[in-house]
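Two proteins were folded this term; both appear here.
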Amino acid sequence: MKSVHWNRSVGRRNILKAGAAIGALQVASPFIIQARGEATVKIGMVDPLTGILSALAQSEVEGAKYAVAEVNGKGGILGRQVELLVEDSANDVGTGVQKTRKLIDRDQVDVIFGDVNSGIAYAMSQVTNEKKVFHIVPGGHTDPITGTDCKWNVFRICNTTSMDAAAITPELVKKFGKKWFFITPDYAYGHTLQDAFIKNLKKAGGTYEGDMLPINTSDFSATLIKAKAYQPNVLLNNMGGLAQIDCMKQFTQFGMGKAMGLGGALYELESIKSVPADAQAGWWVMEWWWNQPNVPHVADFVAGMRKATGKTPSARHWFGYVAVHSVRLGADKAKSLAGPKLSVAMEGLELPPDVALQPGKVFYRAGDHELMPNLFVGEVHPPQGNPDNVFTASTLVPGEQAAGTVEETGCKMTHPAA
């Protein structure tokens, strides 16, 4: 681990000089830049633009759109302009699979992105693997996607749940103690995340209790009463999107912040900004953070995204941005968008500093196709100066340190016959 101490705000300097005008980004409809006289590179993106995870999905789409405009302004991919065709999975597995097949069979996309929902992302991967289409999962975290069910055509940008749990557990134990209570969503992401936390907690000699609840839960009163009676050192809110926001609000309404610590794997910028100041608290992992003074290119990216969207970019914006640029970088290396060739080219690919947007080496590990970035471990707090300055990173945990070995993931990669 290496510690960092970031105190200065990035400010509004070094505005990005884009080659093409980006303008206002429309979230819910396909974002298409038509090429003239030649076939475009088509990227299909499936995300839950409606439902409890919609804010996270919209940020991923905005990041991808921004990157498409940037790439097209610099000549496109393999000399061709890029189209981004966006479909709404509505946070439903069947719909996500249907939209994936539509994008591949009818729209003839070259590449697929998606989904925020880990269960949908996994189901999509069955389709893309069958069709031999290159697939990037920007923000679905469940371990098997790059673990026991890894596939030659699937790469992932966000961390695995095991990586997030490994990075934050030592801080939670140190800050609060070893008696934990989990509030966890009852689907793929929640199951692997809680399992990873329990594994790390047991190594530290800890004990736990908790509830698994439907992903769309809005009333947490019964579970919070149960948590209060258990008297844990720390409550881990593993819910996502609107469910996590509702849980945070009720946690503070019950006055539980005075009785126990608060933390967990992810508390994302979109969610933090949607709760009252007293719910902006706890120790968490950020998978990318905008306030990185003196790190090259970060201020330019932040300023450019603010100009294009009116928002400070979150980790979800970065996921979408990295996904598009990863296709560009991989295609340039492979000289092709064919799934098998692109996949081989992507193995071991290191992101350049203007895409990685963080210190150190950030690369796709060849053995499991998991991106190895830094994990930003720190404290969430009410705004300090800038209204989006709601997190202070105390430690950067290298991705490979948090991920462990490829063998530990259970991934056994098999490529198609040449």
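Next, the second protein.
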Amino acid sequence: MAGSKILFGQGGTQDLDLTTVVGFLICWILVIGGMAAGGNIAAYYDFPSILITVGGSIGAVVISHPSDILKTVGGAIKNAFFSSDPNLLGMVQTIVSFAEKARREGLLALEGDVAELDDEFLRKSIQLVVDGTDPELVKAILDTEIGILEDRHSANKSVFDATAELAPAYGMIGTLIGLIAMLGNLQDVSALGPGMAVALITTMYGSMMANMLCIPVAKKLAARSSKEILSMELMVEGILAIQAGENPRIVEEKLKVFLPPKLRHNLEDAQKAERGEK
């Protein structure tokens, strides 16, 4: 492994997530298409309603979140549309190879591989073990790092959760504003219908913001976070097993529980191929 980076998919180049893109296209095209099919699509546009719903929601979100979290919104949206899912299979194979090397040559033999690791968390984990850190302290340090990462992901997600919660409320505020304006002009009966339509548009805008943008993005970020946390827990389990001097086969069996059934079969097929079996 010397002389080349050990890569297994985390921290590398991000690829466009087609499921997010296709999902958004389906959602927005079909909803807007339904509006157009139902009549004049221009009837669904009202600039004051946009100011009330979108502007009010954004303002409330800014009030409710500190600036350091708000600065990460752009990166969070990028993470929803671009994926760099961890290669769990590659992680298992890499950690098992480290277990085999440590069993043959000792833990200090892994020091030369630390600089070649692409994943910062695994690099730190190996370095702690090579430095002779107490196993309980290693676990405490790594668990703390995982917890902090989880909190950071949760904070990023909370911006979209808050917007999804506030947008319908500001849509209702806009509706109430429209109704008050309409009721103040009851003498003009012909204006009641159009006035009611405009009042309801803000509610529609709020629902669209919540259900066609913020909630889907929040759920995608939660799924991304779960995968990253799972990969880090896999690494912690593997590194602690290596530090305990466990048999590489036992290490592999421990790590296989983190893999979905399809990846387990792929790992078994790769092992058979190495042994020349069919």
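The first helix runs from residue 18 to 37. The longest strand covers residues 15-16. These notes refer to the second protein only.
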